[in-house]
Amino acid sequence: CKEAYEITKPLYESNQNKWSDLFTKSLSSFGTSLESIGKIDEAISLTSDLLKKQPENPSHYISLVNDHLKTGDYYSALAFAERGLMQFPGNISLINKKSGILADQKRYDELLPFLNEQMKYGNRGALQQQYNYYLLEAARTAKDKDPATLYGKIFESSPGNDEAFNYVFNDAVGNQQYEEAIAILNRYRRARGGSKNLSMKELMVYTRMGNTSRAEGLTKQLFAQYPGDTDLRAAYVKILNVEAKDLMAQQMYNEVIP
Fold first, then answer.
1. Is residue 257 over pLDDT 60?
2. How many CB atoms are closer than 10 A to CB 195?
3. For residue range 64-107, what is the model confidence (pLDDT) as tens digits?
């Protein structure tokens, strides 16, 4: 590779138009061989020369990003990714490089708007998946700050997301926003289907709301579905006892009436 580069370099310098393709191929091959033996700085120098000669080739930007990442120079890697995107907006490989760098540094406030911006150039499906993923990562990172807004956005776009549902539902219950909690639960149920666990959450909310009729009706329904559940059995028996006392009280009252 080095020999080919040394042979083609003077040919290129004597007649750039004639020997351009051959020289750039030998230069690229030489740069790759330098990378393979750990001579990253030399590879960067060669690829930079190659970029000057072939600015219309996005692979040179990608190579420079990768080489700078190998040296731990995130600043230069990001700079070349951004330069490449200015030249080739919407290039998915360069988008992925920049996204990866920003994500590694947890710079989600820059990453999310960047992905939104790049969607207008195409690859909307793939970029939307990235956006949703990093939005969730941003929410996890922000747990000690104010994740409610981020988890709310995730739930709005993906109402079947377990983590987002659990957060926004528990947040609503914790803030005594019971009607909102029921609305969140119903939306999640439409996305994922019903379950005993969801129904028990619903029962808990109605109980905290003080909506006795809904709580008792749901308890009876759940006990009919899950008669082996000891907690439901105890709640069901309690309801029957209260109803029995009420009936007895009404009967005694009727007897007193002349």
1. no
2. 10
3. 888 888 888 888 888 989 989 998 988 999 999 999 999 998 88
155-182 pLDDT, tens per residue?
988 899 998 999 999 989 888 899 999 9
Q: What span, in angstroms and rounded, lies between the C-alpha atoms of 106 and 129?
A: 18
HEC string for the chain = CHHHHHHHHHHHHHCHHHHHHHHHHHHHHHHHHHHHCCCHHHHHHHHHHHHHHCCCCHHHHHHHHHHHHHCCCHHHHHHHHHHHHHHCCCCHHHHHHHHHHHHHCCCHHHHHHHHHHHHHHCCHHHHHHHHHHHHHHHHHHCCCCCCHHHHHHHHHHCCCCHHHHHHHHHHHHHCCCHHHHHHHHHHHHHHHCCCHHHHHHHHHHHHHHCCHHHHHHHHHHHHHHCCCCHHHHHHHHHHHHHHHHHHHHHHHHHHHCC
The answer to whether 117 and 109 are in contact (CB under 8 A) is: no
Q: Which two tokens stand for residue 178?
A: 């019971």
